[in-house]
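Suppose a colleague, Dr. K., hands you the sequence of a protein chain of 812 amino acids and asks what its three-dimensional shape might be. Before reaching for any lab equipment, you can write down a predicted structure in token form. Begin with the sequence itself:
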Amino acid sequence: MSPTLTFFFGILLLVLFGWYFLADSERVKRWLGTTLTVLLCAFCIDAFLPLSQKLHLGLDLQGGTSFLVRLVPPNGDEGQTRIITPAMQEQAVEVIRKRVDQFGVSEPVITKQGTDRILVQIPGLDTAQIQNAQQQLQRVARLEFRLVHPESDSLLPQIQSGATFTPPGYVILNSDKERNGKREKYLVKRRPELTGDQVTRAQATFEQRGYEVSLKFTAQGADQFREVTRDNINQRLGIVLDGEVVSAPVIQSEIPNGQAVITGTFTADEARSLASALENPLQTPVVIDETHSVSATLGKDSIVGGVTAGLGGLAATLIFVLIYYRTAGLVAMVGLAVNGILLFGVMSLFNFVLTLPGIAGIILTIGMAVDSNVLIYERLREELETGKSLRAAIDAAYNKAFSAIFDANVTTLITAGILFWLGSGPVKGFAITLTVGIIASMFSALLVTRNVFRWATAFHAIKAVSMLHLIRSKNFDFLGKRRLAISASLILILASVAAFAVRQGGAFNIDFTGGDSLRLRSEKALTESQLRSELEKVNLGNVVIQREATQGKAAANLFEIRSPFQTSSRIVDQLKHSFPDANFVVERAEGVGPVIGSSLAWTSLKAMGLGILGILLYVTIRFEFSFAVGAIVALVHDVVITLGVFVLTGHELSLVVVGAVLTIGGYSINDTIVVFDRIREGFKAGRKGSTQAIMNASINETLSRTLLTSGVTLLCMLALLFFGGAVLVDFAFTIVIGIVVGTYSSIFIAAPIVLWWTNLRKGNLRREVTRPQKPPQPVVAAQPVAKASDGQQPRQRRLIPFTGTGTPTDSK
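The predicted structure, expressed as tokens, is then:
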């Protein structure tokens, strides 16, 4: 679909959404809901079909393109070549990481190699994209603002003919574009007035003149730029990028706001690439020494096993829902099918690169989307038990479940938004995936399934709804066990901290620590699977094996192996022993840096911290501060214990585990908010009893939902854990631990923390929660004049205060 059609299609959807929510007629809502669902599904199916062309596979599934980038030592002040320092290499890694991010959510490998090189592997690039990537990786983006000589146009021909000399302090630079087969030249000052070091933000924009790049300076840069523009009005200011003049606009007035614009004949891609480079300039020039295509990091057996196990687990989950909820479960299947279509459609629109852990994450997302249906159906059960008709019970179930679904998903969206805003690379990719999953699940659960019920009840296709009910007792004293539960959690937290202290660096794999990079050539035709199976015998931990092939040439028996530190010799010995006739030759052996650098780790931690702060503020506004404290404590509790158990059992933290832990954070807050919503409802309904009694009752009422959601999600992950293969073991194991711990904390930890915090500050939780957001304003209502009967005086019309509820009556 063209961009123009997509734009108008989006406008149409917005109109239909607005109409749907404003409509009062059930008949109109049925048709609008159906139209919305059909249009969105058709749009998404068009976006991802054919799958072979629209969905791109990651390095682990299909391989990609590998660039070996070398830093060029810059010259010192006296012309001496400087040594490449670790700081220079680290700065180049972070710059390249940010530039590669513009290629989409591609989960690339970007890591230091040796002392002066950087390994960059990007999946899913075609020939044109490879050339673009090479340009982006090598562009230094040294930006300078230089004044053009007032008589540049007249002096240049004389200088070129030898009639005169170049004025002192000036230099001749070429334009970056050719016109009529020639490059325009400019006579500009040798010393720049301002450099790109003062640029804080660069952004591609579209104006009437076309695409351009807007710049924003630091406070110091803004002052310098104001002085330059103030003192040189009507002179040209050359914008120089990597020694070439991009444009030379005339200064027409003083620019005091610290902003500038680079104009030119840019395409959209050129403007975005230039903005990315200017925002992330390289301090050290680089060149690309080698460009190779590389094979998938996983073997075919691992890929097939992982996908099969994931789909099998998802099928088991859906079958369970169908058996447990029967007819309502069939309605849920329709919603989940729409959810899956929306997920794949948006993935295609965002140019997602699909990895095996990513596939597992999608399966998990669909499994967790069952949660909204479980919430609604458990409410439906309660409403039917009160004797309501089916249609009235369905309406009440959706209305009452809405606040829990909305609050639980918005808190997760806050975290996702902050992770996307501040994160980069895999963290930003996770944030987009999480956001898409949440929006798709809310749409499918609240609109699609509701619409199916509307059609079914309108035509009497569903006359009754029956469900299994495994958990009937609702009299457990959970808060009475709070001291025991909190003591057990404290012991687990201390054990988790101790595990990290004892294992230290041993708790992290090469994604965090780096390792060895080994390049081997074999005279015998071997496959990656053969090498992988032999190296598994010596238990080296996480080893990445890829076949390399130079662009444009036939694949050779050339392998790149990345493994933990000090394992290269063991790898060579094992392979020579296993394949004595292969005559392996070591072409290169050196250290490789971590995939998760210090900068990426810090920005990710900062984003998570701000995400927690966002949750704290939202829950305080929607509930009360005590609930916010309980939610955050439960979240931190779940993440720490999950990581602690993971490390205690001998596993190593990797990039995949980071994604799993972030998922657990979202699951934890979602689970907790559902319980809090029922507690808030109990207070607002004026339920009798103490605060502790109401909390206990609320936890019991949501117990079925809590255990069912955990159970169906565990079905997916247990299938991956036992049958998904070595690649997905860590991901599935982390999720399994997190689900168990998250379920436990939502029952035994979150509410007790709320109660403890309330008692600590001697507050009244019931009064705080039931306090109205905005007191109703009295409205003056006029009473009608009563007719006078014969011989009686008419009653006087009187004005009385009216609060907006009930019917105003005359004061006696």
